[in-house]
Amino acid sequence: MKGWWGRVLRVDLSRGEVKIHELDKDVLLKFMGGRGLAAWFLWNELRAGVDPLSPENKLVLAVGPLTGLPGPSTGKMVIAAKSPLTGGYGDGNIGSWAAVNLKRAGFDAVIIEGRAKRPSYLYIEDDKAYILSAEGLWGKTTFEAERILKEAHGKDCGILTIGPAGENKVLYATIISQEGRSGGRPGMGAVMGSKNLKAIVVKGTKEVSVADKDKVLKIAAEALKSIRESRGYSFWVRQGTMATIEWAQTAAVLPTYNFREGTFDMYRLIDGYSMEAAKVLQRSCPGCIMPCGNVVMDSEGKYSELDYENVAMLGSNMGLGHLGKVAVLNRLADELGLDTISLGNCLGFLIEASEKRLISEKIEWGEFKELRELVVDTAYRRGLGNLLAEGVKRMAHKIGGGSERWAMHVKGLEISAYDCHGAPAMALAYGTSAIGAHHKDAWVISWEVKVDRFGYGREKVAKVIELQRIRGGVFECLVACRLPWVELGLELRYYVELLRAITGYSYTLDDLYKLGDRVYTLIRAFWVREYASSWSIEMDIPPARWFEEPLSRGPIKGAKLDRDKYLEMLRTYYSLRGWDERGIPRVSTLEELGLKEVAAELSRFVELKP
């Protein structure tokens, strides 16, 4: 096949075995790569109810037909497993040289199961793979471990590592690469840690076969030219995602004081212009010409790579209005292997619990010294850090006092950095995201603010699904970064044309939309299978705070969501998806999407509607 290798590397850490398996052509055509492949493997190879931190869980690394080939921002892979944080499907998209090297090593995916008897790391070089001792690396930060591994294996390899947070199974531990690239919010780092797997090192030198090399190069050059000539390119290079701080403040969606408010008095001290003044470096994923990794010198004199999500969650959401100090917390999270979004959410929740005297410890909004200590304690599960390491859903269950009403999560995954008191469509996007409350699948809020701020109509529901098809489906399966399309308006036709030139198959955009629907519905089936006995529409409803506590300040003061209207949106969403009134895929929908075998399996756990 062109663009794919048709091969999977299987690693059994318990037995110390490494094998290469052929991958069926029909599976690749049906699920493409990245998230599609990962979801297919996890659906077929995990039994329902498996403990996410047991040897039986599987960690999947999957690239796609675009990965590592010429094109707009194609240095990406998806890392997936059953999530220890949510108990459902979990994945993350990470850009790094590990993705490019994995593609060049000759694999479409790596599947890792079991648990090594001692700390280990996986070394892949072209067609060979080895399980090596990581006892000298265990306990090291992600930055330290990567530097040591580069000295051992060369600077041209790609490296994925976990830090102490993953080793100690913090439920939102992530996987880190290149001192700032992070992936796997729903605890992929904890899954690695549970397997005694400290790192994955990949070196690939093989050339990927494509159907029409000249055409690939021509389309790629045209796409990159379009990016450079776009109206917003120069400003993007200056601020990247950090420009969103000012936009979110103006739109009153900047998470502030644990999502109580949508505006922050000190936003100017953490915005894109503050970042520009402090910027010392810029980083990007391999082959990317629109770098989003803006590196500043933090208050402790060390490099910290910033973007909007981590600054909002570790800044305004905790009442901390000092970019240098926010950068310290961000850099510590990357070194320790903590997801910055969940971390900022958990810390904001803890501060509010202290404010409401639900815990005895006194923690103030914006108190940097205390927050810094708590970040480190979380990674090592010390004191209050052991509570923080569990995520806000479990924290609220343990603390009680009605705190579950302002525990900001959906399905156990903490909400990322957009307040939705006045954004019903974005609330729906969080409610129906494939992994829990994440913006990745449908960042609908910028469109919503422009078009119809407070409406609950069918058009909004259709827009959420459209974006889920494109962002959560097409880009996650190809695998390529969505930012050239989102931020600079790169036409989707470039991706379709690249896919045709790479694979030789005459794909259309409609084919890719159907792929997105297929993968999204398969992931929904995974969730339903895991939660069969307790599944209900409540799984797709965001936190009570947005319905019950109106904003007390800002340009949309008094705004809050209407629960009845939200539920009507959700029912419309189910209908347009071809799911029943419980949010469970219908048999007819599964069959139409080529998932007949999924219907047969899922019907063992819940009654399916026709």
Search tags:
four-stranded mixed sheet, Aldehyde Ferredoxin Oxidoreductase Protein, subunit A, domain 2, 610 residues, 26 helices, globular, alpha+beta, 13% strand, six-stranded mixed sheet, Aldehyde Ferredoxin Oxidoreductase,  A, domain 1, single chain, 43% helix
Descriptive notes:
With 610 residues, the protein is an alpha+beta fold. Among the domains are: 7-203, Aldehyde ferredoxin oxidoreductase, N-terminal domain (Aldehyde Ferredoxin Oxidoreductase,  A, domain 1), CATH 3.60.9.10; 253-418, Aldehyde Ferredoxin Oxidoreductase Protein, subunit A, domain 2. It has 26 helices and 17 strands. The strands form 5 sheets. The chain has a 6-stranded mixed sheet. It has a 4-stranded mixed sheet with strand order 8-7-12-9. Strands 13-14-15 form a 3-stranded antiparallel sheet. A hairpin with a 6-residue loop joins strand 4 and strand 5. Helix 2 runs parallel beside helix 22. The two termini are 37 Å apart. The model has no long low-confidence stretch (mean pLDDT 97).
